Amino acid sequence: MLSDAIVERAISGFPVIYPTSNLPALGCVPTTDALDRLYKLKQRKAEMKVSLAVSDLEQAAEIVEVDQNVVRLLSDFPTGSLTLVLPALKQMDERVGGGKIAIRVIDTPITQLLLKRVGPLTATSANLSGIEPETDCASAALALDLDSNAVIPSNCTGGPPSTLIQCHDYAGLMSGEQLLVLREGIVSKSEVKAWSMKMN
Questions:
Q1: Rounded CA gap, 56 and 27, in Å?
Q2: At what angle do helices 189-199 and 68-75 cross, to 10 degrees?
Q3: Residue 185: strand, helix, or coil
Q4: Contact predicate 2/152, CB 8 Å
Q5: Element spanning 181, H or E
Q6: What is the CA radius of gyration of the chain?
Q7: What torsion, rounded to 10 degrees, do the Cα atoms 35, 39, 44, 46 define?
Q8: Burial (Cβ within 10 Å: 0-12, 13-18, ≥19) of residue 63
Q9: CA separation (Å) from 50 to 53, 63, 123?
Q10: Which among 60, 103, 116, 168 is least surrounded, fewest beta carbons within 10 Å?
Q11: pLDDT at residue number 199
Q12: Spatial CA neighbour of 168 closest among 91, 97, 85, 71
């Protein structure tokens, strides 16, 4: 069950921990003040960007350009397995990418509810920078000294991360544009290449 307390905390610009298909994520709304709090909590360098989690592509389309080929790409792989770098509709904080935002559609039902009520949240791992992440959300909260109102209790699988992909022109995929895998995760580079070749 999703508590009103965690929703109110997130809306107010404070970091929360929520489950994903692989690891607990540390989320905040992508405002300057909220990002300041998150980066201080994680002890993360400002130049290290974070991705955004969304409940679905409709929510993504409110902040980034979602071409029909983006829809096709995401629909051909399991939900949550890909994170795509997409053009922002308007310039955002550089810590979430500025003009190019990395978007991940989350498939965890309770996290989808959170995102639908709060809006997009950062999707960085819930740990201090450089420290091995926990797989249990409550344990991750303890490690970051966050109380129970800041976490959705859940145990994650601890599997591989999502595969991070960038393309200069998603609309041009049909004419031979290649996808660039920036981080190989649960979807392999060979699978991405095979999909791209099938499109062309």
A1: 16
A2: 130
A3: coil
A4: yes
A5: strand 180-183
A6: 16
A7: 40
A8: buried
A9: 10, 15, 7
A10: 168
A11: 78
A12: 85
Look up the pTM and report it: 0.94
Q: What is the 3-state secondary structure (H, E, C) of 39-99?
A: HHHHCCCCCCCCCEEECCHHHHCCCECCCHHHHHHHHCCCCCCEEEEEEECCCCCHHHCCC
Q: Please choose, from the candidates 100, 117, 14, the residue with its C-alpha nearest in 3D space to the C-alpha of residue 52.
A: 100
Task: Show the tokens assigned to 72.
Answer: 């096709």
Q: How far apart are alpha carbons 107 and 81 in whole angstroms?
A: 9
Residue with tokens 């629909």: 75
Residue with tokens 């995102």: 115
CA distance 98 to 92: 5
Distance between CA atoms of 80 and 14, rounded to whole angstroms?
24
